[in-house]
Structures are given as structure tokens and as C-alpha cells.
Amino acid sequence: MITKRFFLFALLALVALALSACSASATNSNWPGLAADSNAAYLANGTQVIAVRLSDRADLWKYPQKADSKKVFYASPVILPDGRLLIGSAGSDHCLYVLDPTKISADTKEPAATCIFSSDQDRWIASPLVVDNTVYAPNNDGNLYAVNLTSGELLWSLKIGSGGHLWSAPITDGKTLFLSSLDHNVYAIDIATHTIAWAADLKGSVSGSPALSADGKTLYVGSFNSKAFALNTATGKIIWQADTKNWVWGTPAVQGSTVYFADLDGQIYAFDAQTGKQVWDVQPDGPITANPLLMEDRIVVVSESGSVSALGQDGKSAWANTYSTTGKIYTTPVAAGDLVLVAPYGDKITLIALDKDGKQVWTYPPATQ
Amino acid sequence: MWDTFIIQPMTNLLLWIYLLLGHGPQMFGVAIILFTILIRAITWPLNAQQLKGAQAMQELQNDKEWQEIQKKYAKDREKLAQEQMRIYQEKGISPFASCLPTLIQFPIIIGLYQSIIHALASTPLSLLQLGRSIYPFLSVESIIPLNSKFLWMDLGRPESVLMFGFAVPTLAVIVAATTYVQSKLTMPTSSNPGDQAAAMSGMMSIYMPLLLGYFALTFASGLSVYFVTSNVLGIVQYATMGKANWRNLLPGGNKQQNVSARKK
Fold it and tell me: Which residues of B fall within a CB distance of 8 Å from A290?
């Protein structure tokens, strides 16, 4: 009887443990978000936002200092003009935080943090957009919230489509917000009336933000339908569409008359921005979720294989190297002064700084830590 | 290995049902219910075997020869075990037959929980992984994103209903209640005060509702939908087989039966 009872309890404990293990891993179950200014890199690394000084990779601060299961950060922080940071939590607190690095607590060593707005319903996967003093924040509950940055007052909210799954930051031309949704649509929202001006069905989820042409007339965006699109910003009508070999995950990059898309097959495509005619395509390495980074005359791309490559405008390789031995790179690289910052996922090294020629300058944390 | 043979097939089966249902609002919850019915149908023979095994074990507790060897070899455990095995063989009873369906439940619970979390893809990385694990015959572009809403629940998160300013975990209560009812209905009645099977069932009828209620409280509500559906189907199965002891639900019902059994 005692053996049976022990066996039963051991089995139940095992199931409880297995289920708990599944949910516990959720706190760090996405690639990090990354942003940088001329002084520091800001890494949203799951349980913490970490500030690293660029000149000597020193820890400036961490928020929170001790991991809190309610606070989870994946989205790239938005750096405000005054140096404060705005970031949404993907944890159960549903908070949009403003972090002030000029006010570091002597006690906790954390920057002053203010939850300026909290969604009752769901998490913040996407980065917000800040225009003047208004925060436009898409939430996973399917609503776009407009919030006063200073007071945290909710100015308006708008349910987007059938609701749910807003995972990318909106962009704007000053009058209209353009927002992607996993519900297969790209939406144009009139800021003045906060109503949906148009919705374009792209027949597949849209996970990356759209990119705007220099004249503001065309919107470039890719979808899980394995297609690249150019849309008319006034009407949402498709100007051109081109096939890709796999899902387009990230945001395309526009430079002059060319627009660059990357897909999960690892292909980089250069299309004529006006006509959609393919100029070239190359496959530097593994699947690409990150946006291509434009640096002067080069296009820097990172892949799930852990490699970083730089291509010339003709598609020819300028340099390529694998810096992360165990990690994968999904996060969009960021340019900071003369450095290119790369954030691997699943690696002991969480941040790598390269120079413009791909030479490794430093890694964070340093090997001795 | 676990992913390839358990999680991936389960996820694809769930998504296939979801696709058949038109992948609209509410349909992922319906897909979980249909998935549970399918699992119950597959394990029906095992459950029937469990019931028969439990009944045979219960009858054995009242068998004179069984009771005699308990007394005779009370101090010689080795000999007692040998005699017990002999009686099991003579009567064609497998003492572990009643454990099998319970054991099968656990990998299903773990697998289903992981499949629900996997299918609902709450982060970009999990969505990326989901896209790769869907079998080619399913139209992945049209399935994603899954609609996680079902009735008042978000199937990817623990459930609670706001009542008078308090978050009340109604589904956890329903899970615990249906588990209690199911285990009470199948609880053996026995006139033997030292009946181990009855004591074990009594213990299970207390701990299992608490444990599953805790799971419902803590984990994704999609798992709770599975628990409730499975419990209701179990109750229906026992009732249709004529094995349900409805009196057990009444306070002191089991004791009354024992008394009446002794009088006979």
C-alpha cells in the first residue's frame, strides 16, 4: 500500500514538474530586442533590460536588477530624445515602462521606472512609436493605444481588424499610421480621426513593420504568403508584388531606387522599388528573420545560423563571418557610431560589437565573466 | 524524439481538426473538445478494461480464499505475495490492468499541454517554430494566427472570471468538481474494512481533483477544456456501462452501501 501510494505521488509530482517546466521556460522564450545610442546599447533580454556602455562594454544598469516573472522584455526599446527609454512588457504586468537612466537608485542600482500605461488585457510584443508626446502602442490584445507620454493618459484606442496579434511597431508619414497584423492585413489609420482608412489583405500573416518610400507614396512589406509587396499609401492597393522563396519575416530596407527583402530561406532580394523587377538575389547563409541593416554602401544581414554578412549594393559579399558559436541570430542588428551591434539568442554571449569591416571589437559579457 | 513523435503529431492533429472546422473564432476550443473525444474513443477499450479490472480486484477483496491467505500469511510477506500471484493467475486478473489508462493519461496531458502552447505560439520565436513543425499537407499560411479565444477564455492562458472585483478561477472549480464526481462514481464499494482498492480509490478521489484543479489554476485553460471534456466523457462512459455508483455522490453514500452489504 505504501509503495503504491509512493508510486502514485511520484507520478503526479513528475507530471506537475513536467508541466511547470514547460511554463517556466516561457519567460525567456524569445529573441532579444536591441537599441543603441551613441553612448550605450540597450538589450531587452527576456527577464531584464540591460544597458551596456559602448566604449568599454561596462554594465551601466539592469532593469529589473533581480528577475521578476511578471516583467518580460522582448521588444526593442525606444530611445526618447531626452535619453529615457520606453519599452512594453511581454509579462503578466502588461505595463508600458519609461526607464530613466539619469536616475539610478543607490539602493537597487536600477533606473527609475514608471509604468505609464497598462493594458488590462494582454502583453506588449511590439515596440511602440512615439511622435511628439504621443505613444502609439500596438498590443497583443489587438488594440492600438494612443497614450500621452507625460501623463500616461489614454487618448484613444482602436480595435484593429478582428483583434489580436499586433507584433510590430507602426510607422507614420505624419498623418497616417501604417500597422501590420498577423491577421494577414496591413492597416492605415488616420491619426486625426483615429479610424481605419484602409486595410490591405496580403493573404498571409505580416510580422514585420512596413517600410515607407522616401516620397511617402509607397509602402513596402512582406508576408507569410512568401511575397513582397508595394502598396499605395493613399489607397492600400497593391502596386506590385513579387515572389520570395519562403516567408518574409522582417521589415524591408529601402535605399534610393532599390528595396531589399529577406526571407526564411535565407535569401536577400533586391527589387526595383518602382516596378518590383528583381535586380538580384543571393543566399549568404541560414534563415533570416531580422531586417537588413543599411550602412552607407553596404547591407548587413544576420541569420539563424549565427552568421553576419555584409553585401555590396550589387549583391556581392563584402565580408561574412560566424561570430556566435552556439547561438542563433534573429534580432535586427543596430548601427551605433562606428560599430555594428549584434545580439545572439541562446548563447552565453548576448551582445557582439563589430567594426564596419566585420572585425569583432568586443563581446558582452566578457569571456572572463 | 518527444517533439517528433508526440508534440508534432498532436499539434498537427489539433490544427487539422481546427482547419476542418473552418479555423474561425471559437474553433480552437472546439478542436480541443473533438481531440479529447478522439483520445477517449481510442482509449475506450483501455478504460473499459480498467473498470473490469477494478471490479475484479474489488470482488477479490471479498473472496474468502483471499481473506484467508491475508490472515494466514500476515507475517510472511514473501509467501503472501506468491499466494496472491497464484490467485491472480487462477482468476485471470492482472493487478496492473487498472493502472494502464491512468498511466496513458499523463503523456497525453503533458503532450496536449505542450501542443496547445506550441500551436498558440505566443512569441515570435514560437511562431517561427510552429511554422516549421506543421506538416506540408496543412495550409499553414491560412491557419496562422490561431484564434485562441473560446467562450470567455483565452486558451493559451490560465482562466479566471472577474466577480465583485475578484478573479475567480471558475474553470479550476469545474475541473475539480467533475474530477471528483468521476472518481466518486467509479469508487468501489466494499464490505471489507481492510479493502486496499477502496482505500486507494478514496484517496484518489480527494487528491486527483485537487491536483487537476491546481493544473487548471496554473496552466493554459486549453488544458482545462481537455480535463472537463475528458471527465464528462468518462462519467458518460461509466454510466452507459452501468458501472457508475451514483449513491457515492451522496454524503455517507459509500457507508450506507457498506452497511447494506454487511446485512446481506
Answer: none
